[in-house]
Each structure stands twice: as structure tokens, then as C-alpha cells.
Fold this sequence. Notes:
This protein is α/β, with parallel strands linked by helices and 333 residues long. It is 41% helix and 18% strand. Strands 3-2-1-4-5-6-11 form a seven-stranded parallel beta sheet, with helices on both faces. A three-stranded mixed beta sheet has the order 12-9-14. Helix 1 (11-22) links the parallel strand 1 and strand 2 (26-31). The chain starts with a strand and ends with a helix. UDP-4-deoxy-4-formamido-beta-L-arabinopyranose binds next to helix 7 and strand 8.
Amino acid sequence: xxxLVTGGCGYIxxxxxxxxLNNNYEVVVLDNLSNSNISVLDKIKKITGxxxxxxxxxxxxxxxxxxxxxxxxxxxxxxxAAYKAVGESVEKPIEYYKNNVSTILELILAMKRHNVKKIVxxxxxxxxxxxxxxxxxxxxxxxxxxxxxxxxxxxxEKILKDLYKSDNEWDIAILRYFNPIGAHESGLIGExxxxxxxxxxxxxxxxAKGEFEFLRVFGNDYETNDGTGVRDYIHVVDxxxxxxxxxxxxxxxxxxxxxxxxxxxxxxxxxxIVKAFEKANNIKVPYKIMPRRxxxxxxxxxxxxxAKEELGFVATKTLEDMCRDAWNFEKNx
Length: 333
Ligand code: WQD
């Protein structure tokens, strides 16, 4: 089967391409390289011994989309192409809505033109806003999002639900990621955002490497054990395998619209992550407590039961694996 992976040069996209190739899927990648580097394609080949077919460009380019679907018999699409930094989205809302929402409208229209109706959508736990309770189940209230990034993901989820209502020939899996961290064990691919990392783990790794003097801990006055933000960190390779399970659901079972949390079910605080990183890698990570970051919430972690029961998906890698693999990637790049 041939899968189109939009944003396939990115952090989660590239790890998913590796797992797709390892599972004998053929892979076509469309990426505008706005937050990734084309060198990732060679690294995917080094890891798997297989190549992907690559198209550079943006999904807003309908001619390019038609070219991709005309030149390749695509069986399903996995859509990663989006901006994803919570803090940045508060500063640049219009760029986030334009990039994260209007592009998928063009993608869906192109899929319709070419009669491809299976899509796995990269959503996010941020659609739950400030959760009423944790752990969070898929039927928890969504909305009340605290940043444009989460709101853009909520908009797309609504678009996909309306699409399915209008035509239940569509086969849709909405995957709500919690906090993906870590890297492939080879150290060849990992989280290397352009510019200063907005997310915790890549910043921690750069402090360990000496690129930054200390980690800014955004607030220690949250209602959590140690006052710092709690999140459900999941190894990016586990997350990638969750996409394989979702694809199997779409290609082997009856059509439908499915929503799954992809997380471990365990919450760790910022200081837990610092301590785990220091222990796993025997290295110091200096930090300073700073004011809270706009758009942040106190605690967010998943109840992963539904993905386990319906997809047979369980995250297996430990926090130590995540810290070790993140540092291994940073050291090698
Ligand atoms: C985690 C914690 C910060 C940086 C992410 C992605 C988003 C989505 C959801 C996939 C928070 C604290 C961070 C730093 C810090 N993922 N922090 N100093 O905000 O949960 O969102 O997960 O869809 O794409 O952005 O992740 O890593 O930015 O923050 O103290 O320098 O670490 O306050 O408590 P977040 P994050």
C-alpha cells in the first residue's frame, strides 16, 4: 500500500515514515521544509534501506496536490503538516490558522478529486483545553482551548466530523498526541526545530549541550506536585507506531471516524523531566524558575485505554528511553 505523508520531513512525520517503511508500506512525502530539512530523507534511507518519493511544496498549491495524486496511486494519507508550538501560536495566530486549517481544506478537496478517502489526522491533546479532570478520555469535553495552535486542531477535527457526516464513505482516524519527545535510537533523526526550540525536551538537550546557559522553567506555582507543568510524554517512535495501528484500522475494518488519545497515561512535571534527563545521561541541566508562559495549562495526561482496546496500541518506551534517545540525537547533530 502507498501512503502520502504530508510534513513527512518533520519530527513526527520522519519517524512515522521509518515505521511505515519498516512495515513494508510505500511512502510518498510532501513537505514545504518550513520546519524541517531535506537531509532527513537520506537519514530515513540510512535507517531503513528504503527511499521515499519526495515532493517539495505546500498543500495550498492545488496543482502540486493534483500532481502528487496523479503520479501516485495513494491508498491513504497521514497529515502532519502543521505548525505546532503552543507559545508561538499565541504570538502568531493568523499564521497558525492559515497554515493549520486552510491547507487541510485543499488536501481534502484534492483527495475527493482523486477518490482517496482514508486519512489519519495529526491532532493534539491541546484540543481538550484546560481539562475538567485528568487522566483525559476521548469523550472528555473539547474546546476552551487556551492557544491558537490547539484551536486550529479543534477546527480541523470539526471539519473532519462534518466531512464524515456528509459522506460516510470517508475513513478517518483523528489521533490526539500528548507530548512526543525522544528520537530514533540511531540518533540520525530527531526533534530539530528551526530556531530556538519552543518545546521542553529539545531545549533541555541544548542546555545539556551548552548551547543555552540554563532551562527557563515556565512557572512553579501550578496546582501540581512540584508546582511545574505536568504533561504526558510519549516516545516519538511509540507515537509513530500508533499511526501504523491507526492505518491498519482504516484499511482492514469497516469505514468510520475514529478518535484516539496517543499517550502513556503517566504525567511528568518539568522538574521530573530535568531529573530524569540528568540521571539517564549523567549530565547537569541548570534551570531557573521564570514566570508562566501564555497559553500553558497546569496538567494534561491521557487515559490511553481506548487506543489499547481498539487499536491494540500501547506505548512501550520508558522515560529513561526518551531522555537517552533525545540526548543521543542532540549529541550527534
Ligand atoms: C511542556 C511543559 C511548559 C519549554 C506540546 C506541543 C504541541 C502539542 C502538545 C503535539 C509545559 C514547560 C516548556 C521550556 C518549560 N504536541 N516548558 N520551559 O506546551 O505541552 O505542547 O504538546 O501536538 O505541539 O507544543 O509542550 O514542550 O512546549 O511544554 O518550562 O523552555 O514544559 O510550560 O509545562 P506543550 P512544551
